[in-house]
Amino acid sequence: MEFSLADAVDGLLCSDPGLFAALQEHIQLPEQITLDRLAELATSAASSLTVARHCRPILVDLLARATRAAGLRPFDLARHESHCAALSKLLAVAPQTLEEVVRFFQQPPRRSPFERLLLDRHHNATAELRAALQTTLRFLVAAEQALAVLWDWTVLVPLLKTDDAEIKWVTCRILAIYLSASDQTLQRMVQRYVGDAHARLELGAVDELAQIEREKQSIVAHEKSKLEEQQLSPDYRAVGGVLVSVQRFAGLQQHQLEQPQQQQ
Known about the structure:
By secondary structure, the chain is mostly helical. The protein has helices at residues 5-15, 20-23, 31-42, 48-54, 59-70, 77-93, 98-106, 115-119, 127-147, 165-178, 183-193, 198-221, 246-263, and strands at 236-239, 242-245. The chain starts with a helix and ends with a helix.
């Protein structure tokens, strides 16, 4: 069964009618323009999981398009945070997106998901800051080894002195993962900085984990589809129905060429 962009768009509109306004003007346009619009939706916190559910075969390609587009436009903090939140959700349910997540954050000027802390030195306890920290935590839980080396984590330490229990609780968890602290050390940190308020916050974390597992099953449940090369951006090739980055594809080809020589 070939991947059908039209069917994917129909599925999106049926599952989330609110996306109709975002897609209606693109439905009759060339396929590449529609794919670019889907890439925008895939990296919007509000619609990322819906897009992943219906466009799983081309998800990493959509992220590659979005990364390239982000590098061409002026920096906007709200858009950057929404992009980061979307990537953190996608990485939690679709590990194959890790390569594109790393590529996004390595793109100059290499901004972090907690960029707000660098722009607001007063560390005001806002809903936006809480969301940025939750995004950061989600990234570390999903891929600590690949992502922890990208950013300076010392800017988070002052947050332990704020009056906001949720900010301190999330910060404790982030720093514990980054420092490879034991569960006992994490509990001592939480007790010291957060106190009894941590019980309510931990219930929310359990609910999020359950939601992630449900979303994983929902994405996997969609049938695998064959891909057509003309649907892809220049960053990816379809190899046996699987998307492979052009860089990795070149490496595979070189490896195949070297094998006969080694055998001789």
